[in-house]
Design brief:
Elements lengths: L2 H8 L2 H4 L3 H16 L8 E5 L7 H6 L3 E6 L2 H10 L3 E5 L13 E6 L2 H4 L2 H15 E13 H11 L3 H7 L18 E2 L1 H11 L2 E6 L9 H6 L2 H14 L3 H4 L4 E7 L2
Parallel strand pairs: 1-2, 1-4, 2-3, 4-5, 5-6
Antiparallel strand pairs: 5-8, 7-8
Length: 257
Amino acid sequence: MTALERYYGKFDESHRLQTRHGQVEFRVSMKYIHDFIPQGQKVKILDLGAGTGAYSVPLAREGHSVTAVELVARNLAALEAQHENVNCWPGDARDLHFLADSSFDITLLFGPLYHLHGDANRLQALAEARRVTRPGGHIFAAYVMNEYSVVCYGFRQHHALQLLEEGRLDGDFHTVDGEEDLYGYVRLEDIDRLAQRSGLERVKTIAPDGPADYIRKELNEMDTEEFEAFIRFQLATCERRELLGASSHIVDILRKP
């Protein structure tokens, strides 16, 4: 069993997206997915790193043709048990040989790029997503952000000095990760470089959760009316460039020429 399988064997991703901070990420992400689905149409969607189906299942229930690819067997089994109309495959986002070229209108990369290290691996996943997406189709590539990890794990949990001493943070406070690390964290300039090298056209970049991960306690204290106001706030500000890098997640929305 790999470190990734051990991690997701204990971590309940579907539960995370049901929490208040997870709901911010989910609802903003779904709003933008729907923005790229022509009104009244049903489209073909590929969900890479689908987990237990947080996005696959609701999109399939809307009537879209959804194919899910998931590396962790436990997650895939849970997904298959939820919705018989999701076409499920075991697989790695870097090798989609079992899927035909130009097959999907929308491809979601809402997980694999968190766990891949280095440009070569990330570009391989983007290349496969590009191959299986039709010309004019869209790819949603999600990343976990450097500054969020440094603030929360480094300083809030008081690991920063140890990370600097061990060389896991460089002098510019950029994380230095290796293949043994579960997550790989990036900055906006890293995402820009990957987008440019991928051969895909950027449409827009959004912060689906913005400050939500920093204020989990406060979100939980809100009544429904105030929480809905926060959702509106995040939708109103999620494209603001000056706020993107501080989010815990970023979604780069790309178009296949």
